[in-house]
Amino acid sequence: MAFSFFGGIHPKENKRYACDRQVQDFPEPDILVIPMAQHIGAPCKPLVKKGDVVTMGQKIGDNQGLCVPVHASVSGKVKAVEPRPHTSGTMVMSVVIENDHLDTLCEDIQPRTQEEVEKLTAEELMNIIREAGIVGMGGATFPTHVKLSSGLGKVDTIIVNVSECEPFIVADDRLCQEYPAEMISGLKIVMKILGLNKAHIAMEDNKPAAAKALKAKLDPKEGIVLDILPAKYPQGAEKQLIYAVTGKEVPSGGLPAAVGCAVFNSATCKAIHDAVYLGMPLIRRIVTVSGDICMEPKNLMVPIGVSFNELLEAVGTRENPYKVLSGGPMMGAAQYDLAVPVIKGSNAVTILGIKNKYAVVQSRCIRCGKCIDACPMGLMPVLMYKSTYTSDPEEMKSVHMLDCIECGCCAYTCPASVPLVLAFRAAKQRIRDAAAKK
Ligand code: SF4
Ligand code: SF4
What we know:
Layout: E1 23-25, E2 31-35, E3 45-46, E4 53-54, E5 59-62, E6 70-71, E7 76-85, E8 91-99, H1 114-119, H2 122-131, H3 144-151, E9 157-162, H4 171-178, H5 180-194, E10 199-204, H6 208-217, E11 224-229, H7 238-246, E12 261-265, H8 266-278, E13 284-290, E14 298-303, H9 308-315, E15 323-326, E16 333-334, E17 348-352, H10 370-374, H11 381-388, H12 393-398, H13 409-413, H14 420-437
Parallel strand pairs: 1-14, 9-10, 9-12, 10-11, 13-17
Antiparallel strand pairs: 2-8, 3-5, 4-7, 5-6, 7-8, 13-14, 15-16, 15-17
Helix pairs in contact: 2-3, 2-5, 4-6, 5-8, 11-14
């Protein structure tokens, strides 16, 4: 049974630009820049140096603690190990590889038969997932082996997230249409690790072709249920999706495991299949390159490390882009340097034209309360904004600032164009800085 979470909005979907475009292999460029930070947690330390020869899929960075390794997405020669621009807006230590276009595969990459996979224990599977560098590919980039190990014995409901509620983005939609068997196979591995015999695949009702492709591969005896949910933004946010599927509310500050749930992105499931069956680490992903000024929006299978500049060239634009976002227009991050590379969490590059530049005439809050109705977290954005005047971390915390998921629903509905999300992002950072100082 599907539940409707509180609040939310219905922005123009704009998925028509790319939803019918088949995934195409992106031609490998001559130079790839592979950042050492592509996940939440400790960045990797480079394992290679300038002049080294690397093979495709070779581990080139790793670290202890909350970390997953990164791998070379092509074979070639290391041209540099140095800080390079990153989608986070910072400079990040990166390995720059000069592609030899030979695609020499790393000898560690060995496929496994079904029989071999069946013999693997949960521990061994989690280790394979870690060594393959798999993270949440919907954008969260949390290391998947950690999510799995921390869910052992606590999780009774697995949900695969195919909501993809952000406008323009159709990467997961295409993945489910074109790789349904691999996605389901990865999900079965997750079920085996967590010791569960049932799972949900949650999809919004605007993806009929993907739903049909999955249904054709699902066996009712295998315990996997496809839940079709009415489209509403931000259904893809973990807490909202859990409520929509189970009716359970994740408590403030809590993790999904607190209500027995674990959510995995559909691309993450396919990456798990590739790692376990093909022995292939996460070195490629589907990226939707779309926007209102694209000549030919595309869904591309892109090696990690390809620059945004190269993706823009691949789709062509009718005018100079006004804004290029890593992600979608609601939660994506505008990029100031298009030399930034595609990383594991890059599900989309959204290219917007000048017509999206409108003069934002910010006025005073008129106390209309629209932001409160829109907030899917049940927060009071108008009071949260007022608390930011004080700069007092305790006061900002008292209005549940840290529960804000920065979805932008409040700012989207605000008739006074109050820059709510910007203020909340800064306030959350101030609270964290104050906690760190203590
Ligand atoms: S950005 Fe934060 S406050 Fe605004 S609607 Fe989303 S969760 Fe609520
Ligand atoms: S929507 Fe904007 S104007 Fe209305 S109460 Fe919220 S902040 Fe104020």
